[in-house]
Amino acid sequence: MVITIPGGRVIATMHEVMVKFQENQMTLQAQTDDISLLGAPCMLIANGGTVNWSLSLGSEENLNAVSEATGIAIKR
């Protein structure tokens, strides 16, 4: 599933999440086992092994779309 966020897009599957930023052509990638979703303030957090980054998804709609695509529950 491709989800448009401010500045880029999130490509989410049951196995991984990839974030592609348009302006600087940077890509972040993580396995879903290393991902958590936080309900307020709509954050995608990657933390596991050598992966450690976070991203604001901009809206509850984007957060729900990532949750649906990956099967990851949202922590409220």
Can you give a write-up of this model?
- There is one protein chain.
- By secondary structure, the protein is mainly beta.
- The chain has one domain (1-68).
- Helix content is 14%, strand content 50%.
- It has one helix and eight strands, in the order βββββββαβ.
- It has one helix at 60-70, and strands at 2-5, 8-12, 16-21, 27-31, 35-38, 43-48, 51-56, 74-75.
- The strands form two sheets. It has a four-stranded antiparallel beta sheet. Strands 7-6-5-8 form a four-stranded mixed beta sheet.
- The chain is globular, with a radius of gyration of 11 Å.
- The chain starts with a strand and ends with a strand.
- 20% of the residues are buried.
Mean pLDDT: 95
What's the multimeric state? single chain
Report the C-alpha radius of gyration, rounded.
11 Å
Low-confidence spans: none
How many structural units, i.e. domains? 1
Strand order of the largest sheet: 1-2-3-4
Name the structural class: mainly beta
* Biggest sheet character: 4 strands, antiparallel
The amount of helix comes to 10-25%
Distance between the termini: 23 Å
Strand content: over 45%
| Number of E-type strands | 8
Please state the overall shape, judged from the principal axes of the Cα atoms. globular
Helices and strands, in N-to-C order? Answer: EEEEEEEHE
Distinct helical segment count: 1
Protein name: PTS sugar transporter subunit IIA
InterPro entries: DUF3389
Pfam families: DUF3389
Question: What's the structural blueprint in terms of helices and strands?
Answer:
Elements: E1 2-5, E2 8-12, E3 16-21, E4 27-31, E5 35-38, E6 43-48, E7 51-56, H1 60-70, E8 74-75
Parallel strand pairs: 5-8
Antiparallel strand pairs: 1-2, 2-3, 3-4, 5-6, 6-7
